[in-house]
């Protein structure tokens, strides 16, 4: 498969998965998000974690605000993503909601651009779709794949609605699989983990 064909295939899949997630009723997304949060907070690697890097949900993504509140209340070393010019994502320390401002597309973003340089015990990542073997497709800019390639993480945990699981995705050498996928219906740990 040529690079152009691969990118076009990924673009089509992103479009389909965006439509699937957007079609989920708000009440269903809310209930599923609460279930996913409970499952994550019951995971031993999460309760033991001292440092966590977690995305701030936006729009119709799995809601991570409850997770972030829990991590803050537990006093964990917490960081959230910030996109810098030049298509680079960094992990910025996060201690309070009032440190955030609406950034690109209205997504809450830290005002600070000072990265957290510690390794993270747990990274909670978004995505549009995931396969049972841990591969993900994001929004097309490669922020998380680049970040994963450059930063060690104890456990990469993806959160998504069960409707976002697919049998396969086109992947290339830059795609980094996650270690665990948590949906409202199941927890998937890829076989080779």
Which radius of gyration do the C-alpha atoms yield? 16 Å
The CATH architecture would be: 3-Layer(aba) Sandwich
The succession of helices and strands, N to C, reads HHHEHEEEEEEEHEEE
**SS-derived structural category:** alpha/beta
Largest sheet: 7 strands, mixed
**Beta-strand content estimate:** 15-25%
CATH topology description: Rossmann fold
Number of helices: 5
Reading off the top of the CATH hierarchy, the class is best stated as: Alpha Beta
Strand order of the largest sheet: 3-2-1-6-9-10-11
| CATH superfamily caption | NagB/RpiA/CoA transferase-like
Q: For the residues shown, what is the average pLDDT?
A: 92
Can you characterise this structure?
- The relative contact order is 0.18.
- The protein has helices at residues 3-23, 26-41, 44-48, 65-73, 143-150; strands at 51-54, 77-84, 88-93, 100-102, 108-110, 120-125, 129-130, 136-137, 153-159, 180-182, 187-188.
- The protein is built from 5 helices and 11 strands; from the N terminus they run H-H-H-E-H-E-E-E-E-E-E-E-H-E-E-E.
- The chain has a 7-stranded mixed β-sheet with strand order 3-2-1-6-9-10-11, sandwiched between helices.
- It has one domain (3-188): NagB/RpiA/CoA transferase-like (Rossmann fold, 3-Layer(aba) Sandwich).
- A hairpin with a 5-residue loop joins strand 4 and strand 5.
- The mean pLDDT is 92.
- The protein is globular, with a radius of gyration of 16 Å.
